[in-house]
Amino acid sequence: MILKRFRFRLETVLRHREALEAQAEQNYQRAQVMVEEANVKIRAQETRRREAMQIAPDEITDTARLQNRERFLLTVQAAIALLEREREAAGIVADMMKTELVAARQAREALSKLREKDVAEHTFLTLREEQNALDEMATMRHGRV
């Protein structure tokens, strides 16, 4: 008796969905990196602002230096606002990538479950065939005795 090897009829589709899931995972990770990079840049600008703020305005006697400090603070604040918008945009992209990842994962899991069901059915049928063959051999032996 030759046992049939299991072959999942949707194996190529499953492999494709696994590849799509892996790509979605990479896209999501890249989007998360973009959010974190924006956070790092914001923290750096906030540090620059804090350092400039540590110098009290009454300590600066030169009017030009005071004006430079105020312009610097405005520039840093504008940079922070721009970076916060970039972080928000990166967060939106990360949310979209996460949604795509979840969808890709669900699509792959649906096929994986179908494959597991087919494996279980194949195993059951194979074992049943083996048992039937054993029963037939036992019947033949008892018939000859």
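(ticket continues) Second input and output from the same batch:
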Amino acid sequence: MLNFLHRWNLSQPVIKQIEGYSNANYKIEDSGKKYILKVYLHEKHATDWAETENKVLLWLNEKAANRFPFP
């Protein structure tokens, strides 16, 4: 998670763990911005799931911009 915080230049994040299926999810707020960090196990099926989830979110953003999280 530290890599995520550094990558997005978060200085005073508020981090809350939220419900997830087979992964760990965190809601992160900093300077008025909100992020969701999803942490998957390093396994083939988890990687496939994450890639599919990203494709679905990109498609949803194309159809209805700003209504869905951007991966």
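Agent notes: The helical segments are 2-7, 44-63. The chain has a mean pLDDT of 81. Closing as not reproducible unless the customer responds.
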